[in-house]
UniProtKB/TrEMBL annotation:
This is Xanthine dehydrogenase, molybdenum binding subunit apoprotein. It holds the Pfam family MoCoBD_1. It is an enzyme of class 1 (oxidoreductase). Gene3D superfamilies: Aldehyde oxidase/xanthine dehydrogenase, a/b hammerhead, Aldehyde oxidase/xanthine dehydrogenase, molybdopterin binding domain. It comes from Rhizorhabdus wittichii (strain DSM 6014 / CCUG 31198 / JCM 15750 / NBRC 105917 / EY 4224 / RW1). It comes from the Bacteria. The keyword Oxidoreductase applies.
Length: 748
């Protein structure tokens, strides 16, 4: 079969189908659902990093008018006793935090009480009156101290890939005529989506829970709550039709939903818990990382040795580990490469995935090292990359399903005007501003995850496609709509996409950049199923207008089907359904990598690539850095929607600029607490920090990588950007800063 579609199908720059709802305030977020008799919960967080609660005095809090309860470990509801009941879909190995389980304090900021009141104001005031006594144990949050305890965990989290070494990197490094070596450091970062983590839990009359949660996976939250409170999964419905950004912070259920559910179950009332911006710094974050990188090369720039040894932090109760060191080892042809990756425990909450986890750290550091090497050998940074280009995945020795990085380099350089760069640092300036041009490579995974979707065609000619997938602002609604439009030849206006509801067909969390590829494939399968049923229905019509045509012989166009060979008439979907006495056609299908895919998965690497070019202007006297121009050339397979795709990359580039210049979470080590827990002190790029960003999608047809040839775009935009900025700063100033973010103090 095939569809002819004028403007709404795959490849069309459709505006977000839910855009109007969002800009008119009609899209409702988790904290915005009204409920009769709604109670408000405010969380009290631990003020020490390690020890025990010895005393709770909630008398003053309970005396506040309107306060209904103060939940603590002393009066909490029954919860599951087994750790594994708290292990959600994306939990790393270990013992997940069980809020209010007992008196133990594992980190500063751990939720220790929930004050529940008739009004938010009463709850907030009463929360400030809860007095806690502690017995403190020694804690550590210092990286350099934790390093002494670094280790390689035996049980790896899924999605973590240990590096594979090749050749003899140490000897090659010793023998190399040109070498560079440095310790590259990346500070911790916190996800700072606009929407804070929030949950409104409706306690339904029959005891079931309807949970509006800010999450990237409603079914993940459903299973987690059912496990933690020993409920039947069917008795917990989780919805997240709109999510105000997440960047990975919504992959795991956070404590707001757990506490709201506990309070609702205990008090048999509906409860809302909204975290404050400050409390957003008491759960997940991108871990701090130290990566020692040594590179050896021939005088002509041929890489002969790669050594990379990284340690990232984790909590003391879970082993969260990112794939940090592999990227450079995969990307460059080099006969000798050795990587090592460790984690080291500190007394903080467990870090977690934040946009391009591992790559945004490790590839950034590697590309900063490549920049140093380019100056050491005296070769243009882009030429050095091209010289060491690998057509295959150099670490695994496997082919890529596609890798149009060469094209990305060329088109990015062309658009940027890279050939006009003067090679010497501090050689370009305008007035008081030093100008620097830098570039870097980006790389991310192109993943595909088992996902189901349902397509329902009604006799009024409208189609609904549905999956429990989330749209965290990435454009999933629009992608689902376009794939359906493409497959059945319907205009977008006839299609409704539904998502963000645990009762919808099975979906993974939205993450890892697998959303569009996975739910897109599922929607396509379901729509194919609808098409097949339509063709069957048409055979029941008087005179068989399609003359017995098979599905493959049919064209689907504007709500009709007709023979490709032009014989017969166009049959409206509705006429076929009427003839077969169908009031609806409903098909649910699951897309998943089949056994053959698994074989090819082992044989081939699946990745997105990017080439990022950047101009900075640095005030010579003040050290203020402005990123005035970025060109990001992306090789990410088939682009379903160039408009939403561009937005994804723009957002990634902005976040990369944040990582390069602004974002870092600082711990007060005496308290073991993240201190700059607000937008005044945790800096993210503001409008004034963002100038010209150009996004290029290079042609990269890849029918093999995923069913739709889609590779995903949520993460590749950030990777490469921070390194390009840092490298441009070196070119502008001649100051090599190996620790991100490059703040003014490091430059002067
Ligand atoms: Mo992404 S860090 O997988 O939400």
């Amino acid at each position: 079969m095939a569809a002819i579609i004028a403007h709404d199908g795959i490849g069309a720059p459709l505006s977000r189908v839910e855009g109007l709802l969002k800009v008119t305030g009609k899209a409702r977020y988790a904290a915005e659902y009204p409920a009769t008799g709604l109670l408000h919960g405010v969380v009290v967080n631990a003020a020490i990093a390690r020890g025990r609660i010895t005393r709770i005095d909630d008398s003053a809090a309970r005396a506040v008018a309107g306060v209904v309860d103060v939940l603590t470990h002393e009066n909490r509801l029954e919860i599951a006793s087994a750790d594994k009941k708290f292990q959600d879909d994306v939990a790393p190995p270990g013992s997940p935090l069980r809020p209010l389980c007992d008196a133990q304090i594992h980190y500063n900021g751990q939720p220790v009480a929930l004050v529940v009141a008739e009004t938010f104001e009463a709850a907030r005031y009463a929360a400030s009156l809860v007095e806690l006594g502690y017995e403190q144990d020694a804690h550590n949050t210092r990286f350099e101290v934790a390093l002494a305890e670094k280790f390689v965990p035996r049980k790896k989290r899924s999605g973590y890939y240990p590096p594979k070494n090749r050749g003899d990197a140490r000897s090659a490094f010793e023998a190399a005529p040109v070498t560079i070596a440095g310790d590259y450091h990346k500070g911790a970062e916190h996800h700072n989506p606009m929407e804070m983590h929030a949950s409104t839990v409706f306690f339904e009359g029959d005891g079931r829970l309807t949970v509006h949660d800010k999450t990237q996976g409603p079914q993940n939250v459903q299973a987690y709550l059912a496990g933690a409170f020993d409920l039947k999964a069917d008795d917990v419905r989780v919805l997240n039709p709109f999510v105000g950004g997440a960047f990975g912070s919504g992959l795991r259920p956070q404590y707001n939903v757990y506490l709201a559910a506990m309070a609702a179950l205990k008090l048999k009332r509906s409860v809302r818990v909204v975290l404050t911006r400050q409390q957003m710094f008491t759960h997940t974050h991108r871990p701090e990382c130290l990566n020692s990188i040594s590179l050896g090369a021939e005088r002509d720039g041929t890489l002969t040795a790669i050594l990379t040894d990284a340690t990232t932090l984790t909590s003391r109760f879970e082993n969260y580990m990112e794939t940090v060191v592999n990227w450079g080892m995969m990307n460059y042809a080099c006969e000798n490469a050795e990587g090592a990756s460790y984690i080291a425990p500190v007394d903080t909450y467990t870090p977690g995935d934040m946009r391009a986890p591992g790559a945004a750290t490790g590839m950034t550091q590697f590309e900063m090292a490549m920049d140093e090497l380019s100056y050491a050998v005296g070769i243009d940074p882009l030429d050095l990359r091209v010289k060491n280009y690998s057509n295959i995945d150099a670490m695994n020795g496997t082919e890529f399903t596609s890798k149009a990085l060469r094209e990305a380099y060329a088109q990015g350089a062309q658009a940027f005007g890279w050939d006009r760069r003067s090679p010497q640092p501090r050689s370009m300036r305008e007035g008081k501003e030093l100008i620097g041009w830098g570039m870097a490579t980006g790389m991310w995974d192109a993943m595909f995850s088992k996902c189901a979707a349902r397509a329902t065609l009604k006799t009024d000619g409208t189609l609904e496609v549905a999956s429990a997938m989330s749209d965290i602002g990435t454009g999933t609604y629009t992608v689902m709509t376009q794939v359906a439009a493409d497959t059945l030849g319907l205009p977008a206006s006839a299609i409704t996409a539904k998502l963000g509801d645990s009762t919808l067909p099975l979906s993974p969390v939205e993450g890892g950049s697998w959303g569009a590829a996975s739910v897109g494939a599922a929607v396509q399968l379901a729509c194919h199923g609808v098409a097949a049923r339509l063709a069957k229905a048409a055979a029941k019509m008087d005179g068989d207008p399609l003359e017995g045509a098979k599905l493959d012989d049919l064209l689907f166009e504007n709500g009709t089907m007709r023979r490709r060979d032009g014989k017969g008439e166009a049959v409206p979907f509705t006429a076929a359904m009427e003839a077969a006495a169908l009031d609806r056609i409903e098909v649910e299908k699951t897309a998943q990598p089949g056994p053959l895919d698994m074989v090819s998965l082992m044989r081939k690497s699946r990745n997105t690539h990017s080439a990022v070019f950047c101009e900075v202007r640095v005030d010579e006297e003040l050290g203020v850095v402005r990123v005035t121009r970025v060109v990001s050339a992306i090789a990410a397979g088939r682009i379903i929607n160039p408009k939403t795709a561009r937005s994804q990359i723009l957002g990634g580039v902005v976040m990369g600029i944040g990582a390069a210049l602004h974002e870092e979470s600082f711990l007060d080590h005496r308290l073991g607490r993240f201190m700059n827990n607000n937008y005044a002190e945790y800096h993210v790029p503001a409008h004034a920090d963002i100038h010209d960003i150009e996004v290029i999608f290079v042609h990269e047809p890849d029918p093999e990588v995923t069913p739709l040839g889609v590779k995903g775009l949520g993460e590749i935009g950030i990777v490469g950007t921070a390194a390009a900025v840092a490298n441009a700063i070196y070119h502008a100033t001649g100051v090599r800063v190996r620790s991100l973010p490059v703040t003014i103090d490091k430059l002067l």
